[in-house]
């Protein structure tokens, strides 16, 4: 498990980009109190999903509005090119821990995982 941040670093309804893992992960504290972690980079172009709009269990990309489900990573449609990875997240003693997906990330053209 990787520690991404503290629960107190998160704001309900907003995302936080974490660069300590590659590719970066976006962590969200949903309005229902659940914590979610997905790859931060949109699968269409190099946009940070942590800066997107969170609503009804999905985050809308800030550039072209594809909406990614926080539980499956699947977008509702184009121009996203595929699903983002979902990482299993849990909160232990106020710290957000994730088990990073071992699947290959779906990154947009021109973006490489460090
Ligand atoms: S960059 Fe996300 S939908 Fe275009």
TrEMBL record:
SUPFAM superfamilies assigned to the protein according to its UniProt record, in alphabetical order: ISP domain
The entry's keywords: 2Fe-2S, Dioxygenase, Iron, Iron-sulfur, Metal-binding, Oxidoreductase
InterPro entries reported for this sequence: Rieske_2Fe-2S, Rieske_2Fe-2S_sf
PROSITE patterns assigned to the protein according to its UniProt record, in alphabetical order: RIESKE
Domain Rieske: 2-98
Pfam families, per database record: Rieske
Keyword Oxidoreductase carried by entry: yes
GO molecular function: dioxygenase activity
Entries under PANTHER family matching the protein: 3-PHENYLPROPIONATE_CINNAMIC ACID DIOXYGENASE FERREDOXIN SUBUNIT (PTHR21496:SF23), FERREDOXIN-RELATED (PTHR21496)
UniProt name for this protein: Bifunctional 3-phenylpropionate/cinnamic acid dioxygenase ferredoxin subunit
Provenance organism: Isoptericola chiayiensis
